Amino acid sequence: MNRQLTAFCIFLLLSTLLAGCWDQVQIEERGFVVGVAIDKPRTNEAEQQAKQEAPDKPQVKERFLVTHQFVVPGGLISGGQGSGGGQNTANEAYLNLISEGDSLFEISRELATRTSRTPFYQHMKILIVSEDISRTKNGFARALDFYLRDPDSRRSSKVFISNGLAKEVLEVKPKTEKLPAIYVNSIGENVNKNSRMLPEVRLGDVHEELLSSYSFVVPRIRAEKQEVKLAGSAVFTHDNQLIGFLGEEETEGLNFLTGKVKGGMVKGKFKNNLVSMNIQGIKHGIKADLRDQQHMKFTINIECEGTLAESYATIDSLNNTAMGKLEQVFAEEIERMSNDTVKKVHKQMKVDVIKLGSYLKQHHFSLWKKIRQDWETGQHLYEKSEITVQAKVYLRNIGAINRTERQNNR
Amino acid sequence: MSAQTLAEKMISKNHMGINIASVTIGVGILTFPRSLAKATGAFDGWISVVISGLCACLVGWLLAKLAARFPRQTFFEYSSIIVSKPIAYILTLLVCIYTMLFVSFEIRAIGNIAKQYLFYNTPVEMITLSFLLIVQYSVVGSRIAMLRLNLLFLPVVLVVMFVVLLFTTQLFEIENIRPFFSSDWRSLLEGSRVVGLSYSGFEIILFYTMLMKQPQEGAKAVALGLSIPILLYMTIYMFAIGVFSAEVATNLTYPTIELAKEVEIPGGFFERVESIFFTIWIMTIFNTCAMWLDITVLNLSSMFHKVHKTIWVLILSPMIYFVAMLPQNLVDFFTFADNITYFGMIVVYLCPILLLLIAFIRGVKGHE
C-alpha cells in the first residue's frame, strides 16, 4: 500500500514537471525578421495622438520609425502554389510593417498588436539606419542598443547607413530575389568584385567601433526603384556621430589606404587610351616617422597585384618595358585615388578613418599611451601629421590575347 | 575481496585529474573573459590566466600533500587527528557550508543563463528546481558511478569547445590582439586575482584522495586536472579578445556565450551553434554540481555516521534551493559568487595549509 502511494506521488510529481513547456513556440507562429530599417518619423502625427491618449507620459527627444521585414514563408514557394493561401494575393515573400515609437523595444512589442506572428530576431540579416538618425548626437548608438542587448539577435547582422530614407531600401522590388533583405545581404558579399564597396560591417564590429575612441566608416546604401546601390561609405567621428559621406571613388581610395581591397578594378590612361586592371590582391604597410610628435610623418605603402583586363591602347603587352609603363600608369592611378581620399578625410573631415591611431596603438604603444587624448581631440596631432602614399603595381598576366587590332601604321 | 563491483573500485590518478578538470570548469568560464579584460584591458590577460593557474597548482599541491599523509581517511578524521575533535567539527561544518553554497550558486547560474538565452517564459525557480532534482538523483546513487560520468562528459565538452573556437577563427582580427605585453604588472596581478575565482574546484582533492588507488599521486592528479582548464581558459580568452577586442569583451555579460553565438558554419547548413554549446555547458555544470553536493554529503556523513546519505540529500536540497533563490538580480548574483569564493579561500585553501603545517611540525601521520 505504502509503496503504491509513493509510486502514485512520484507519478503526479513527474507529470506536472514533465508535461507542458512554458516556452513552446511553434515554428509557424514565429515572425522571422530578416531586415530592419530605422528612420526618423517625417510627421509628428503619431506623436500627437500618443500625447492625447496619455497626456502625462514623459517627454522624449527622439522618436523612431522602424520598418520590420518579415518573411512570409508561403510566398517563398515559386510558381502558382503560393496563391492558394488567399490572404497573400500578390504572392510576395515578405511583409513590411512600419511602426513608430520612442524606443525600439516598444516598437518591437507594438508589432504584437498588429501581426499574428511576433518578431523573432535570430535570423535578422541586415540593419539599416537612416542618415537623419546617425547625424543626431548619440542617435546611432541609441538605435542599435536594443539589437545589441537583446540576447535573441545576433552580432553578425550587417549594418548599413542609408542615404535618404532607410525604409525605402526594404521596399525595393528586386527581380532576382524574393526578399529585399536577402538581396541587400547578397550584394554586401560582392566585395571581392568591386573595391568601391566597403567590406561588410557587422553589428558586432559596430559595437567595437562605438566603444573605441576612433572614427569609423559604415557602408552606405541608396535605394532606387527596383534596386539598391551599395557603394560609398558613411563617416562617423570618434564620438559616433555621422559627419558625411565618402563617394564611390573615395571609398575605393580608403579601401586601398586600409588594405581592405579584395578585388575590383583600376582604370588608367596609357597614351590617351584607356587601360584597366583586374585587382587580385593587395599588400599594405605603414611606415611612420615619429621623431616630431607635432608633425608625424606616415607613409602608406600599397602593393597591388593584378592582371590586365581591358586595353584600348594597342600596345605590345608582351613586352617588359610596356608592362613596366602600364604598371606605372596603374600605380599612379591608385596613388591619385588614395590622395584624394586623404585630402578629404584628413584635411576636410579631420577623421582618422585610415586607422593610423590604431596603427600607433598596435606598434608604438608607449607613445600612443601618451598621445591618446591628443590624437583626434586635444592637440589634434592627427590633423598636424603628414600622410604620403606610395603605390606599386605588379601586372602578372595580360589575359588571353595580346592585341585586339593591328597597331596603326604598321 | 577479489571481485570488485563498480561501486567499490578505487579511482586512478588520471580519473582524479579529470574529476578536477570537470569540477573546475563551471560558471566562471562564461564570465571570466569580461572581468579579465576589464582588469588587464589587453590581450596580455593570458599571462594572468597562467600566473593564476600556477598559483592554483601550488595550492593544490599542498592540499594533495595533506590528504596523502592520511590515506583512506576522511577530511574530518584527519583534521581531528591534527587539531582535536571540536575544532575539526567546526572546520568540517564550515567546509560543508562552503560546498553547499557552491551548489546553490551553480544551480542559480543555470537558472539565470537558461532563462536569458533559452527559456524566456519559464520561471527561474522552475529551471533551477528541475536541475536540482537531477543532481540529487545522481548524488543519491553510487559515488564512483557519479564520478565516472566525468570521464564520459569531459571529452565531449572539450571537443565541442574546440569546434566552436575553430569556427571563430574567421572572425579573429589581429588588430585586436596587438599590442603585446602592454599591461603593467599591477593590472596583470589584478587580472590573476579575478581569474583565480574561476579556478576554484581543485580542492576536491582534499576529500576524494581517500578514494584514490594511490593517494601519493594526488599532486600529479592536481597538475593534470588544472592543466586542462588553464589551457582552455587561455585559448578562450585569446579568442574572445581576438574576435571582440578588449573593449567589447569588457562590455559583454557572458563573452563566451557571445563567442559561441558568433560561430557561423559556412554554407548556412547549421546556424545556431550556441545551442550545442549550451548543452555541453549544462553537462559540465551538472558534473560540478553533483560533485559539490556529494562532497557536502560525504563530509556530513563522516561527522554523523548514523544518518543515511539519502536523508542528508533530502535535508540539504531545500536549503540549497532557498539560498539559490536569494540573489535578487544579476549584480547580487555575481557578488554572491565572489563572496563564496573568498570564503572558500579561507576555508579550503588557508585552513588546510595550516593543518598541513601543524601536521608537519607535530609529525602526525596517518596509517594505511
Characteristics of this structure?
A: alpha/beta; GMP Synthetase, Chain A, domain 3; 2 domains; 10-stranded mixed β-sheet; 4-stranded mixed β-sheet; 14 helices; globular; B: 368 residues; Amino acid/polyamine transporter I; 16 helices
Please explain how this structure is put together.
- The complex is a heterodimer of chains A (410) and B (368).
- Chain A is α/β, with parallel strands linked by helices.
- Chain A has 14 helices and 14 strands.
- Chain A has helices at residues 2-18, 45-53, 73-76, 104-110, 131-135, 139-149, 167-170, 180-188, 203-211, 248-258, 320-348, 356-363, 365-371, 381-384; strands at residues 30-39, 64-71, 94-101, 118-120, 126-130, 158-162, 216-223, 228-229, 233-236, 242-246, 264-270, 273-289, 297-311, 386-397.
- The N and C termini of chain A lie far apart (115 Å).
- By secondary structure, chain B is an all-alpha fold.
- The longest helix of chain B has 33 residues, at 85-117.
- In chain B, 74% of the residues lie in helices and 0% in strands.
- The two termini of chain B are 17 Å apart.
- Chains A and B meet through helix 9 and helix 12 of A and helix 6 and helix 13 of B.
- Chain B: It is a multi-pass membrane protein.
- Which term fits the overall shape of chain B? globular
Q: How much helicity do the residues of chain A have? A: 25-40%
Strand content of chain B: under 5%
Helix-strand string of chain B: HHHHHHHHHHHHHHHH
H/I helix tally of chain B: 16
Transmembrane segments (chain B): 16-33, 45-66, 87-105, 117-139, 151-172, 192-211, 223-246, 276-298, 310-328, 340-361
Membrane topology (chain B): Multi-pass membrane protein
GO biological process, one term (chain B): spore germination
InterPro entries (chain B): Spore_GerAB
Write the layout of secondary structure elements.
The complex is a heterodimer of chains A (410) and B (368).
Chain A: H1 2-18, E1 30-39, H2 45-53, E2 64-71, H3 73-76, E3 94-101, H4 104-110, E4 118-120, E5 126-130, H5 131-135, H6 139-149, E6 158-162, H7 167-170, H8 180-188, H9 203-211, E7 216-223, E8 228-229, E9 233-236, E10 242-246, H10 248-258, E11 264-270, E12 273-289, E13 297-311, H11 320-348, H12 356-363, H13 365-371, H14 381-384, E14 386-397
Parallel strand pairs in A: 1-4, 1-5, 5-6, 6-7, 13-14
Antiparallel strand pairs in A: 1-2, 2-3, 7-8, 7-9, 9-10, 11-12, 12-13
Helix pairs in contact in A: 6-9, 10-11, 12-13
Chain B: H1 13-24, H2 28-40, H3 45-69, H4 75-82, H5 85-117, H6 124-140, H7 143-168, H8 174-177, H9 185-196, H10 205-208, H11 218-244, H12 246-250, H13 255-262, H14 274-303, H15 309-324, H16 330-362
Helix pairs in contact in B: 1-7, 1-11, 2-9, 2-11, 3-9, 3-11, 3-16, 4-5, 5-6, 5-14, 5-15, 5-16, 6-14, 6-15, 7-14
